Amino acid sequence: MAAPVTIIDISYVAAPAPAVPPEPIKLNAMEALWVVVPHLQHLLLFEGDKQLPPFDALLQSLRSSLAATLASHAPLAGKLHHLADTGDVAIRCSTDDEGVKFVAAESDADVRSLARDEDHDVHTFERLVPELDMGLLPAPLLAVQATRLGGGGVALGITAHHAVVDGHSLWRFVEAWAAACRGDAPPAPPPVFDRSRVKLPGGEELTRSILRKYSPNLPSASMPWSQPEDHRQVMRRTFALDTQDMGRLKQRIVRLGEAHGAPLRRPPSRFVAVLALAWTCFVRSKAFAGDENVCLFFFADARDRLDPPAGADYFGTCLTGCLAKLPARELHAEGALAAAASALQGAVQRMVEDPLDCWPGWEFFRVGADFSDRMINVSGSPSFRTYQVADFGWGRPRRTENVRMNREGQVALVGARDGEGVQVSVSMLQRPQMDAFKAELLDQLG
After folding, report:
1. For 89, left (φ over 0), alpha (ψ -120 to 50), or beta?
2. In this structure, are residues 384 and 416 in contact, taking their beta carbons and an 8 Å threshold?
3. Which residues sit opposite 92 in a β-bridge?
4. SS3 239
5. According to the model, what pLDDT value does residue 228 have?
6. 273 and 209 co-located in one domain
């Protein structure tokens, strides 16, 4: 049963007037895809020790540093609007806007259990991120929640609109906010909100066609096709693979490829290695017919893949899709890890050669409908240094989690707390299958 969370204060943090852009910032086609699935939510858990300041002082530091950060991230204090005269959706900022919602709360939930248990307390996690109604435009873009927890800990929850923030942008924002809270200089380079950085064939008309297809009822931003509401039954677990685990896994993949006459085209990256492991464990934890294809879908950052590149400083959502699939029998075979890694490298290579080949990536919902429970959907990346960038002056978080893992077969990746390993969070509907997934993972890493 979820621990109750009591809201003790709601305030708003506005962007400084000189920083507010005077003109609307129109979404591009890559961002338009996310208008109907807007919530991007992450949770940072800090255990109580001598580094944590008193809660009131902590709240004041977070508020003042957020205000300072909005000087360079002012669009996040605005709202997403439907421009009915043109059919566009755009970020509009105004000095009359309330700003970013800042929630202060408290709960008896034990921070040690939340931060250290392998199984997620899903219901409590969901109460530790702020609620935002994004289903009707104009819709807010950002809210934060700081919750005092039992055991002397603190939870910091972030809800952002996925149409204007992807994982790369979110963690760049957290890095800037944390630096301001510590009193350090902001990370360089500063964010760029210029949507003309992302050049796609079709330009604004492509964006409008995407909006008509996926958001036909604007200003209502409800999803036009049904999704099963089973997230309350989904269980989630987090596994941490340290540097030694990753080293052994990569070596094993290379050996298996050579032993079965199918050497990899290059040594596997952390990303490829850990997804090959998750894909194999997923298939072996469930009952699939040998000739059934099982898919793995992931979004890839396209900033530096576009022509011309959008640039690492581009602040927005800039993602393309990658899809790999293999028959279940190949993922049961002795060389499964190498076969999975090879298929993933192929998907990545196709994306590198043509970043728009598998775009719009939103078609994974259609693929998901075809493959039902035979697909893994991956979010995040080991390159996200979530623990390193989220030091607000009282040390790294004990745990960070993607709260929006509501479907069977979702996998969320971030860099591990040790800085070199990978944190893997997995959601599944049935405990026996989750137990089988874990047993297979430990066996593969053995």
Report:
1. beta
2. no
3. 79
4. strand
5. 47
6. no
* Domain assignment of residue 389, yes or no: yes
- Give the Cα separation of 124 and 131 in Å (integer): 13
pLDDT for the residue numbered 71: 96
Among candidates 316, 353, 338, which has minimal Cα distance to 194?
A: 316
Does 60 lie in the same domain as 17?
yes
Residues 6+ apart with CB under 8 A from 285: 428, 433, 434, 436, 437, 440
- The pLDDT of residue 229 is above 70: no
Task: Note the pLDDT tens digit of each residue in 340-396.
Answer: 999 999 999 999 998 887 766 455 455 544 555 788 999 999 999 999 999 999 999
- Domain co-membership, 64 together with 94: yes
Any bridge partners for residue 103, and if so which?
A: 10, 145
Is 70 exceeded by the pLDDT of residue 225?
Answer: no
**Measured distance CA(274)–CA(279) in Å, rounded:** 9
Query: Is 160's pLDDT higher than 80?
Result: yes
pLDDT in tens, 400-430: 999 988 788 899 999 999 888 999 999 988 8
**Contact between residue 442 and residue 278 where contact means Cβ atoms under 8 Å apart:** no
- Measured distance CA(288)–CA(373) in Å, rounded: 10
Assess if residue 219 is contained within a domain.
no
CA angle 321–174–234, rounded 5-degree value: 55
What token pair was written down for 96?
């009359």
Burial of residue 23, with CB atoms counted within 10 A of its CB: 0-12 exposed, 13-18 middle, 19 or more buried: exposed
What is d(CA 175, CA 167) in angstroms, rounded to the nearest whole number?
A: 12
Angle between helices 55-69 and 167-182 (to 10 degrees): 120
Q: Does the CA dihedral 45-50-53-55 come out positive or negative?
A: positive
The domain tally of the chain equals 2
If you search the block for the tokens 């043109």, which residue do you land on? Answer: 86
Its domain, for residue 329, covers 235-445
Instruction: Check whether residue 378 and residue 441 sit in a common domain.
Output: yes
Reply yes or no on whether the pLDDT at 242 is more than 70: yes
End position of a domain, from candidates 170, 185, 214: 214
Note if the pTM is more than 0.90. yes
Q: What is the CATH number of the domain that holds 441?
A: 3.30.559.10
Let me know whether 162 and 242 are in one domain: no
